[in-house]
Amino acid sequence: MERARFFAVLLLPLVGVFIVDQNIKQIFLDGYRYFGECIDLTLVFNKGVAFSMFAFLEENLKYIQLLLVSGVFLYIFYLGKLCYALPSGILLGAALSNIYDRFVHEGVVDMVYWHCGFDFAVFNFADVMIDFAVVWFLVLNFKPNLCKGK
Predict the structure, then answer these.
(1) Position 52 confidence tier, pLDDT thresholds 50, 70, 90
(2) Which of 15, 78, 107, 127 has the greatest number of CB atoms lying within 10 Å of its CB?
(3) Does the structure show a pLDDT above 70 at 55?
(4) What distances in angstroms separate CA 128 from CA 3, 52, 95, 107, one per listed residue?
(5) Cross-strand pairs, 62
(6) Is residue 119 flagged as an active site residue?
(7) Residue from 21, 40, 101, 127 carrying the catalytic annotation
(8) Measuring CA to CA, which residue among 63, 95, 99 is closest to residue 76?
(9) What is the pTM of this model?
(10) How many domains in the chain?
(11) What Cα–Cα distance (Å) separates residue 8 from each residue in 3, 58, 80?
């Protein structure tokens, strides 16, 4: 029963983040644009990862990422700690959404471009959710009393 609960808590945010991110991306694929003083909302296809790193890996990048995400899933499932299920679901849903983009659009669909004071990378909702999940993992690891038992 505990494994079923863990899997449910993992699966719901995974599916939810994936669906929300893909729907936001579809709005921009359909042509929506906004240009503001500090933020532009415009369509960009990122062929690499953060700041377009590893774009030279081209077609292989999506398979490498799929392998890494599968490893994370297996490790989290092996740990089986319920306190890791929710941030893991968020992380995996966001990562799979970006990987899905690579298969369907040949690059990650990004749209938020911050350019006030300095030029920042163009990113998307999934990227924000990945960052959020990583911070959550850091908190759980630096505050072990938050994550008790299996």
Answers:
(1) low
(2) 127
(3) no
(4) 28, 16, 11, 17
(5) none
(6) no
(7) 127
(8) 95
(9) 0.90
(10) 1
(11) 9, 34, 12
Cβ neighbour number for residue 75 with a 10 Å cutoff = 11
Active site (annotated) includes residue 110: yes
Q: Which two tokens stand for residue 70?
A: 């599968």
134 to 31, 108, 130, 149, 150: CA distances (angstroms): 31, 20, 6, 21, 20
Q: Which two tokens stand for residue 91?
A: 């992380």
Q: Which residue has the tokens 């995974």?
A: 14
The predicted model gives 49-77 an average pLDDT of 79
* Domain span including residue 115: 2-146
C-alpha distance from residue 142 to each of 13, 81, 129, 149 (Å): 23, 16, 20, 16
Residue 67: alpha-carbon gap to chain centroid: 15
- Tell me: pLDDT of 132 over 60: yes
21, 30, 110, 131: which one is catalytic? 110
pLDDT at 121: 80
- Asked if 123 and 112 touch (Cβ cutoff 8 Å), the reply is yes
In angstroms, the CA 96 to CA 132 distance is 15
- Each residue's pLDDT tens digit, 93-128: 999 999 999 999 988 999 999 888 877 788 999 999
